[in-house]
Amino acid sequence: MGNPKAFLTINRKEAGYRPVLERIEDFGEVEQTLNTEDRMLQASRCMDCGVPFCHWACPLANTMPEWQDALYKGKWQDANELLAKTNNFPEFTGRVCPALCEKSCVLNLHGIPVTIRENEVAIVEHAFQEGYIKPHSPQKRTSKNIAVVGSGPAGLAVADMLNRKGHQVTVFEKDELPGGLLRLGIPDFKLNKKIIDRRVCLLEAEGIVFKNNIDVGKDLTCGDLLKSFDAVCLCIGAGQPRDLSVEGCNLNGVYFALDLLKQQNRLVRGMKIPREKRISAEGKNVVIIGGGDTGSDCVGTSIRQKAASVTQIEILPMPPKDMNPDTPWPLYPHILKTSSSHKEGCTRRWSLATKRFTGKNGKLTSVEVIDTQTGAIEYLPADLVFLSMGFIHPVHEGLLDDLGLTYDVRGNVAVVTPSKTSVDKVFVAGDALSGTSLVVRSIDSGRQAAQAIHTYLT
Hints:
Strand content: 5-15%
CATH superfamily of the largest domain: FAD/NAD(P)-binding domain
Number of strands: 15
Helix content: 25-40%
Low-confidence stretches: none
Distance between the termini: 41 Å
CATH class of the largest domain: Alpha Beta
């Protein structure tokens, strides 16, 4: 390392967020950036610790110390090349990853880890700006054709890796544009969709074919799919949301979280949504059931839609704020997470279970909850409720059942060898295989599936 003692003299410095009163007026990205000098100084804090637990914790096995050192020395192109060896899309993970690497950084023993995630996105954005990242088509093509069903992070990673091997790859997406939940599930204030467009254009220039608005299993039969391609990789995600079967769940005003997020992302892009179909929190009391990241995204979206009040409830007790002995370093800590959306103004409640929804004339008016610790019953005023309790497994009906796939005990697609399903030529990657997980894990799963498919084909 160029400066092995920098961590002793240079403090951790985060880029921070745009001012609250400014950012809640639009859907622009909330996170700011540091200047070049500060960013290089932050990279110098990587302390050459001997055992890089950051590398150990990263599902992609990113070589953080190496590209941190290159960044500190101003070797931006070298840093980008090191980063690109293990991560297909650092511009995505650098924005939305919870940074498992930082939580396992040795400096996190004192709560001041290296700003690995911010450094990562700074490197790739600098590389795009300076023209280091260019289309590189394979010099030689094989005769093999692969279909990738789904264009989320797993699907894009599978396609990218197989295309590099010289195979011809076609990506099928049921929605209007590629990206999966990167595009429709994550708000623009966390991930500007031009970032996805930029990467997709690069992949197209390298020879990958994208076919949108095709729901495989309906618009393209499974038989035709298997006849037309030498291998198929299913990257359809875990699309079956966890429902809440309580009294009143059919009242007008109760929605799944993605109903809100998908619609708002389309509105931001300029898509026309009939007014009678719009989900608007303007002037309404909003209750979000579920304390995870998707619930947090609903908080930020509701605030931008000018909700009268926003309350997020969680059935579990509030986790510790700083340290949790159940998840000691270098494990990812189960502690209280406060997102940028939470800081924009919402009420967070814990240990509350939903008993029923109440309403009048078919419209939601309140949520009856019970405190799981005291047994006290309470009614929360609510004009809108968003169910954000996660997803249980991929949707079985249609494509998966028609292919005759088997499932594991959790309802995910089962495999007989890594990434290979029980059906010949059919592989699986991402959340459809593992259940709901992180973008970084989906990319890793896609890379593994691509290797399995390449081995199968050759």
